[in-house]
TrEMBL record:
Family listed: Belongs to the TRAFAC class YlqF/YawG GTPase family. MTG1 subfamily.
Annotated gene: ylqF
Protein name, UniProt field: Ribosome biogenesis GTPase A
Keyword Iron assigned: no
PROSITE patterns: G_CP
Length: 276
């Protein structure tokens, strides 16, 4: 953690604007707890990425919540490779964030107009996908320049706008078991760190408590559902059986988690609405 933090802090010194990516399904739990401290007062644009997988109403509420805190926030879908308007909107947000900085430079007589930025976020929120989306076909990698740490690559997105090609990977916060569950369910935590059967039962239980009737694609879940029986039933219906007809719970659990992550169980935000 200390090494990661040192690396990000070093890179932050080289940039003017930070793009913080958060998973729209976890607008709170997928934020690094120390993000404000790490980024400091650098201009920032926050993306609620994977908005296509999240509950639209909750995304609106969270966007409002963070806007009210003075952040520039955009719901985003980094996979929508063809969308020029999303890219334009993001670049405009970045440029407007950088205006003050350019003013300051001008007042000091500095003619450099280049705005440099980097992407930060916890694992799996879509950092690399966003880089690919932004880079597209048009961008060119700029060579190392004197005064810039060797090995750093800057990608020119527009005339005066450059992106660091390596994102800053922040660490998620695990201490709260509920947050751990949400991070695991969305895929932000390594598969080796949890038991898929337990996780899928927790996920079914989350649906039972917070969104009965929402697991609608193939299964219905009610408030009184026994989630273990439900997983067993899913295995039976899918033919996930071991020799002797015993349900293969692990196989069923992995399939259920895959379906959830791919949005096949509906657009779901696991964090509840923001507390004002
Ligand atoms: N549905 C959807 N999937 C997305 C979106 N952005 C990224 N993904 C998917 O999310 C997964 C993780 O994306 P990455 O770009 O590898 O995430 P990352 O933050 O670079 O991950 P690490 O390398 O683990 O830090 C991939 O399967 C992407 O295709 C999005 O906006 N919508």
């Amino acid at each position: 953690m200390a090494k990661t933090r040192r690396l990000i802090t070093e890179n932050l010194k080289l940039v003017d604007v930070v793009i913080e990516i958060v998973d729209a399904r976890l607008p709170l739990s997928s934020r690094n707890p120390l993000i404000d401290e790490i980024v400091g007062d650098k201009p920032r644009v926050m993306l609620l990425n994977k908005a296509d997988l999240a509950d639209e109403q909750l995304t609106r509420l969270w966007t409002q919540y963070y806007s009210d805190q003075g952040l520039v926030v955009l719901p985003f879908n980094a996979l929508q490779g063809a969308s020029r308007s999303a890219k334009k909107q993001l670049l405009e947000a970045i440029q407007s964030q950088a205006q003050n900085l350019l003013e300051k430079r001008k007042n000091k007589g500095i003619i450099n107009k280049t705005i440099r930025m980097m992407i930060v976020g916890i694992p799996n929120v879509g950092k690399s996908t966003l880089i690919n989306f932004l880079v597209g076909k048009g961008a060119a990698e700029t060579a190392d320049r004197p005064g810039v740490t060797r090995g750093k690559q800057w990608i020119r997105l527009e005339k005066d706008l450059e992106l660091l090609d390596t994102p800053g990977i922040l660490w998620p916060k695990f201490e709260d078991p509920q947050v751990g569950f949400k991070l695991a369910a969305t895929g932000a935590i390594s598969e080796n760190a949890y038991d898929p059967v337990e996780l899928s039962l927790e996920l079914l239980n989350w649906f039972r408590l917070h969104a009965p009737g929402r697991v609608e694609t193939r299964y219905k879940i009610t408030e009184n559902e026994d989630v273990f029986l439900m997983l067993t039933d899913i295995c039976k219906r899918r033919g996930f059986l071991r020799p002797g007809g015993v349900p293969d719970l692990e196989k069923g659990a992995i399939m259920l988690l895959d379906e959830f992550r791919a949005g096949k169980l509906g657009q779901v935000t696991l964090d509840q609405e923001p507390q004002k």
